[in-house]
Amino acid sequence: MSKKKKKLTPRQRKIRLGFKIAWLVILVALLLVFIVFYFKYGRTIFRLQDEAKQLVRESTVDTFRQNLTTTVYDSDKKLLTKFKSEKDSYYLYYEDIPQYVKQAMVSIEDKSFATHTGVDLKANIAAVFSLIRNKGEIKRGGSTITQQLSRNIFLSQKQTWERKVEEIFIAMELEKKYEKYQILEFYLNNIYFANGYYGIQAASKGYFNKDVDKLSLSQIAFLCSIPNNPTLYDPVERKENTLKRRDRILKQMYEDKKISREDYQNAIDEKITLKKSKLERSNYVDTYVLHCATEALMKQEGFTFKNKFDSTDDQKAYETEYKELYNQCKQDVYTKGYKIYTSIDSDKQKELQRAVDEGTKSFTSKTKDGIYQLQSAGTCIDNKTGRVVAIVGGRSQDNDGYTLNRAYQSYRQPGSCIKPLLDYTPAFQSGYTTTQIVNDKKEKDGPSNSNGRYAGKITLRTAVEQSKNTVAYKVFQDIGADYALSFLYNMNFHRLAAGDYYPTASIGGFTNGVSTVEMASGYATIENDGQYREPTCIVSIKTVDGTEVVTSKIESKEVYDKNAARTMTDVLTGVLKRGTAKGYALKNMSCAGKTGTTNSNKDGWFSGYTPYYTTSIWVGYDIPKQLSSLKGNTYPLYIWRDFMSVIHEGLENKDFPSYAEKEKEQKVENEKKEEEDEEKLENNDDEYNDDDLDNDDSDYNDPTATPKATKEPTRTKEPQQQQQTPVQQEQPTQAPTQAPTQAPVVTAPPAVTDPPVVNDQNQQVPDTDTPNQ
Q1: I need a surface site. Which of 121, 314, 738, 742 has the fewest CB within 10 A?
Q2: Does domain 192-280 have CATH number 1.10.3810.10?
Q3: pLDDT digits (tens, 9 = 90+) for 282-301
Q4: pTM value?
Q5: What span, in angstroms and rounded, lies between the C-alpha atoms of 89 and 490?
């Protein structure tokens, strides 16, 4: 028989009813809290979860390899410089990371890493109690390795509940998509090690100046101490804190049986000495390498570079396309961790900088910004490869950041230095010879010679040696502007313009001007038997995994005929023997070159070469102004000879290649005939003499004069033999049977090259990355 249910007393019924009401109130309150929480936070939480899923879903392994430091190496494969965005980082694959690094990080940061699913609840609770127990000092991290990775890659460091919630969601999603070894690899390559170093390899190079696989156990534990709190454990500012945490890590590793007692004790006893890497920077090398690497990557992307256009619209469209891809490829250089191998010779780079500084040291005036007013720039090319081995964009100064690299960013009037490229080598190619008799005579509307003297009937060789403006002017008119300028276009001179199709260009009167890189490349083309090679310092570019994206192959194309180029070289050797650079030939080394001085002595140039190297030097003010002592055969020539003498020390003398066989057979006879011709011309009252050397070769460049349009040839002209003084001519180097192809005239103004550019119109061009034409 069932037990009779005990009847509740009125008091008990009231108590039970009270409990029911209380629970109901609690449930209603919880429901209200949930409703309030949902409307206030719930939607945000669900949104954060959706965002986390999308971020991880769209991620790839490349997501964790962003913003890597690009390293640049010189011709000896020694570290030259580094390019990085906001941080210095390198990437190591899992198998290349030392085992001690993996064990140390897991032991101190996340013991349950191998088993948790992204979030360690126990660790988070323990971290809270640790925070309370240590009065706010962080002794134990609550975030797992996966959470820390989530924060570093996808989120900011801002301390908000939203960020913490999204961090948890991202960590859980990462654990679903990637393997544990991948997560640890990503983490060790992205975690912050203070002082701008991201990843274990960057920290190793930064603090110990060596790769991480060369570190000792103690050094590894020392580095692994930093990420927990990079400020508190900064090894530079708070080394004692770092050492204490190192000892704790070593103890953890010992307790986890990752190292032996002996290993532990030896590591504890080891003295830690920082050996921070010191990189000697050259902002001129850095900016030029960056520019060349960027354009090399653009070329790899299939971009076609242009320096002449059919219309203004055509040019604008090109510039827009150029800028977009240039900026993209430039950013890649900063962030993709390339290894860039260059042709820059560090010793020659230092020598060129020294020569520039030494050659201008007597000029000490500075601008209000502390920049030397008188400046100089130079470029040296290895004639064997066609690559740039040294480039200096200005005098040495202590500056923060990069300054104007005048060697490739400034375009200046070249004066007579342009004559071999624009006038005489094309003339030799079209039929002129070195013994051709020309008339050094002032013509109406034509240029004057710098010294105001005119020699009358002289050979073309003499006209070049003595830098006769009148002769260059006439030769240019004879061969035609289109024909002459086509050679500069073919050598990728960037800033030619419609206004250059006038005779004043023959003596360096350009709309915009030229750079030392272009001039060095042009003269190197003459030395290389007329074969042009694009001037660059890039040998190869490799990705993080060693894939070569830019190859080391140098392509060449014929610009000048071999005979014409060799004839020009032979003539230019006389400039240093008898001409405007007399007395400055290199000792025991064949050399050729040409001076250049603009009107009012605003710019001075010397470009010259040996069988080994070609160097072009410019001297002048950023905002052009007169300097009476500045000529092509003063400061630029002094710098050129100083530098070239040093870099040729110990090299065996080589002769320049002679003319082609048919020319060689007559060379001796022609030289003898030249001497006879010179004797016949000695009776001219206005004949050139050595006193004229002091005046160099300043060129006609009157901006107020009305340019006279050039009459274009309809056929290749055979130069007229002078009747008054019969001379046996050399055999033509090349006599084309048809008129040279005329180059299209540029109707649009030229684009500006890399930032910033100083031109010859007394103004500073804005600092923008715009295309090379």
Answers
A1: 738
A2: yes
A3: 689 999 999 999 999 999 98
A4: 0.70
A5: 41
